[in-house]
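Q: I'm building a small set of examples for a reading group on sequence design. Run inverse folding on the following structure and report the sequence directly after it, with nothing in between.
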């Protein structure tokens, strides 16, 4: 994920070469959309003005790094401010569209999708920290650090990250190894996944794993082990994934969060999250292990 990307704050001295521009109206990304295939691309231009976005102003531009493939391609993020709501919906030139990041899964190159996730969080942070949260004075952006500073009281605000755990719980069942999967009350499609939750103040990640599993399904777990991590820009999470073993208890749903939960073998899984998510990686790894494949 983003192996070819180098994060940076200071923009290049020479901006005459085409760069990737990640332009957002609210949380929707401006993309070049192929009407026939549905494939999306990030605009690569010297200046957004060449896109002829007559219904918008480009505001609060930020440089956030570059992709190093055959050549160095710089990356900028900015917000699109429509001159009217009609402009946001109807006045885009042909071939351009504003789309939510979730709807771009499978349409946009994976590397560019995760860069868009980084960009939208920077744009949101810039938009929501124009004024000091302590004294209300206008903030300034530090030139060599990703931070907003208040010139009046000295308060600083860094881009917000919300750490969350996501955990695959397993046990030995009558028909072999089983994985715990649940369906969220807010799920719009009948999809099951591993359990997740946000870290609370004063908690270690392991404490959060135990608490979330106990709160949501009434079970105890043991042998908590780190699996991997993934930035998740919905809106600003860092997902830290673990595996754990069932240690006791019976499933009792937290009905405000879950509508169903159960134990499943690798041969009898309900629909689960698609590729790109770390939830998918956790479940796919379980399947590989049970079918004799390599772990990873």
């Amino acid at each position: 994920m983003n192996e070819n990307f180098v994060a940076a704050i200071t923009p290049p001295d020479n901006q005459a070469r085409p760069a990737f521009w990640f332009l957002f109206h609210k949380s929707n990304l401006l993309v070049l959309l192929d009407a026939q295939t549905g494939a999306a691309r990030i605009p690569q231009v010297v200046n957004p003005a060449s896109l002829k976005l007559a219904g918008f102003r480009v505001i609060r531009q930020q440089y956030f790094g570059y992709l190093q493939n055959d050549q160095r391609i710089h990356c900028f993020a900015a917000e699109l401010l429509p001159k009217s709501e009609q402009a946001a919906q109807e006045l885009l030139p042909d071939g351009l569209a504003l789309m939510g990041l979730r709807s771009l899964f499978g349409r946009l190159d994976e590397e560019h999708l995760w860069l868009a996730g980084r960009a939208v969080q920077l744009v949101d942070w810039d938009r929501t920290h124009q004024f000091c949260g302590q004294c209300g004075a206008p903030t300034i952006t530090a030139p060599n650090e990703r931070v907003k500073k208040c010139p009046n009281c000295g308060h600083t605000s860094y881009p917000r990250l919300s750490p969350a755990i996501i955990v695959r719980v397993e046990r030995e069942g009558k028909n072999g190894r089983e994985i715990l999967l649940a369906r969220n009350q807010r799920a719009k499609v009948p999809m099951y996944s591993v359990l997740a939750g946000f870290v609370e103040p004063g908690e270690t990640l392991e404490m959060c794993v135990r608490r979330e599993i106990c709160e949501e399904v009434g079970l105890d777990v043991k042998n908590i082990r780190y699996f991997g991590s993934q930035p998740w820009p919905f809106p600003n999470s860092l997902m830290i994934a673990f595996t754990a073993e069932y240690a006791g208890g019976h499933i009792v749903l937290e009905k405000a969060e879950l509508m169903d939960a159960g134990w499943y073998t690798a041969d009898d899984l309900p629909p689960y999250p698609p590729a790109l998510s770390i939830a998918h990686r956790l479940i796919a790894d379980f399947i590989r292990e049970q079918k004799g494949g390599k772990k990873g």
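The mean pLDDT is 92.
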